[in-house]
Amino acid sequence: xxxxxxxxxxxxxxxxxxxxxxxxxxxxxxxxxxxxxxxxxxxxxxxxxxxxxxxxxxxxxxxxxxxxxxxxxxxxxxxxxxxxxxxxxxxxxxxxxxxxxxxxxxxxxxxxxxxxxxxxxxxxxxxxxxxxxxxxxxxxxxxxxxxxxxxxxxxxxxxxxxxxxxxxxxxxxxxxxxxxxxxxxxxxxxxxxxxxxxxxxxxxxxxxxxxxxxx
Length: 215
Hints:
There is one protein chain. Strand 2, helix 4 and strand 3 form a beta-alpha-beta unit. The protein is α/β, with parallel strands linked by helices. The chain has helices spanning 2-12, 14-25, 37-52, 81-92, 111-125, 144-148, 182-193, and strands at 62-68, 71-78, 99-102, 105-106, 164-169, 172-179, 200-203, 206-207. It has 7 helices and 8 strands. Strands 1, 2, 3 and 4 form a 4-stranded mixed sheet that branches. The chain folds into 2 domains: 2-106, no CATH class; 111-207, no CATH class.
């Protein structure tokens, strides 16, 4: 399972890789507005650890980060306002970060979106081919509360590691994460498309070893 856990961490840093490439390309001599390469690598690791360690960070959220000078820029989506606030708080104390620009978007509190989350989750993680991306070996959780689709899944999301994250906004679904091959990415997209209630499906899953799709 450690192999698959590393996939989602890699996905979370894809946006950083693009935005921070000029930092690595700079001279090794530090200046007042940038970090040294050594500090940059340390900060990247610490940010990854802090964000991945958030207890509220679950399958219906997606957080990425970038660097602008000595400012850490948080991006992505949070299904609960508390997650956005907590993400900003835990990275502020990292040595070397002078400020945090928190651009994480808090998703609407919508019973309909919760029903879509439950439906897409069930379709994706009940597929035998995709069960390896779920820490619970494909078992749909939290069981009855998902089956009832009662609009409470945002407050009580499925627990454990999930490589495929499901972002729902006003009935529109985007899949984020890293999978092992293009076949798995395609199957995830087809499973999501078969879920009732979604207005649209955008498949932004990345295959391990390939480049980000850009967002």
